[in-house]
């Protein structure tokens, strides 16, 4: 039985990916700091084989323990490591606290780095896939979420580097670049004094992409040959514009700041 280990498995994209992979016969390992969230995800898997792992992705040593426990239950297999855990930090960058900056970098970037570092030997043994959640905010810098955007650029670059470095060792490395997935992170990311990311998306009349589409994109990324999988219309538009219309994107971003 193939197996997937999912960080941020207690909610959002992680939960949807767990449900989809379990429905297709995979063993699932859920990792999160949210015990209640993981328990609810496990309940939704309908009796599929699942293990729960309390994990703070910022703790490199804890990664070793969680993955060892998981492969101990999976018969030694780790076919996919889904580095998905992340937090949103928004608002005026100059007014963001040092604690918030450090937390965002430590979870969104170093959590991914530590996961890849800890998972390498298992993925090499299985010829598996490392899947990292980046963001459309990693395509072009996004006003109001500067540090979040920076971490997602870093995840994208890290994915590209390991795609080349690990190719010869039989490990596939992929990234998801979702735009506005309809999850709670949109409500918990302030981008102004009285505005959340969800408010901004609505004001701009942009789309909310159902989380199930993100889960299917994860499945496609794992089973395909595309390095960066774009999720949502906004992500696809940004990818095109960043490649061919960077000057226009810069002007638009500056106008939005006024």
Automatic annotation (TrEMBL):
Its keywords, alphabetically, are: Oxidoreductase
Q: Which SUPFAM superfamilies match?
A: NAD(P)-binding Rossmann-fold domains
Q: Which Pfam families match?
A: adh_short
UniProt keyword Oxidoreductase present: yes
Recorded coiled-coil stretches: none
Q: What GO molecular-function term can you cite, just one?
A: oxidoreductase activity
Give the family, as the similarity comment puts it: Belongs to the short-chain dehydrogenases/reductases (SDR) family.
NCBIfam families per record: PRK08267.1 (NF006123)
Record PANTHER family? OXIDOREDUCTASE SADH-RELATED (PTHR43391:SF82), RETINOL DEHYDROGENASE-RELATED (PTHR43391)
Q: What is the name of the protein in this document?
A: SDR family oxidoreductase
């Amino acid at each position: 039985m193939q197996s997937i280990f999912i960080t941020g498995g207690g909610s959002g994209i992680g939960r949807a990916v767990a449900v989809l992979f379990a429905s297709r016969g995979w063993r699932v390992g859920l990792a999160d700091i949210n015990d209640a969230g993981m328990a609810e995800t496990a309940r939704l898997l309908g009796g599929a084989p699942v293990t729960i792992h309390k994990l703070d992705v910022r703790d490199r040593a804890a990664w070793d323990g969680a993955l060892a426990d998981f492969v101990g239950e999976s018969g030694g297999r780790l076919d996919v490591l889904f580095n998905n855990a992340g937090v949103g930090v928004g608002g005026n960058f100059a007014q963001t606290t040092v604690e918030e900056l450090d937390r965002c970098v430590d979870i969104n970037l170093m959590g991914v780095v530590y996961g890849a570092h800890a998972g390498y030997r298992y993925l090499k043994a299985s010829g598996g896939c490392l899947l990292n959640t980046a963001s459309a905010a990693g395509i072009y810098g996004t006003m109001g979420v500067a540090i979040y955007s920076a971490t997602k650029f870093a995840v994208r670059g890290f994915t590209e580097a390991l795609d080349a470095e690990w190719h010869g060792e039989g490990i596939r490395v992929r990234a998801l670049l979702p735009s506005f997935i309809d999850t709670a992170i949109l409500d918990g990311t302030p981008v102004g004094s009285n505005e959340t990311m969800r408010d901004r998306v609505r004001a701009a009349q942009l789309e909310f992409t159902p989380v199930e589409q993100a889960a299917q994109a994860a499945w496609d990324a794992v089973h395909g040959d595309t390095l960066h999988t774009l999720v949502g219309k906004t992500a696809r538009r940004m990818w095109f514009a960043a490649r061919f219309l960077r000057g226009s994107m810069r002007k638009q971003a500056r106008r939005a700041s006024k």
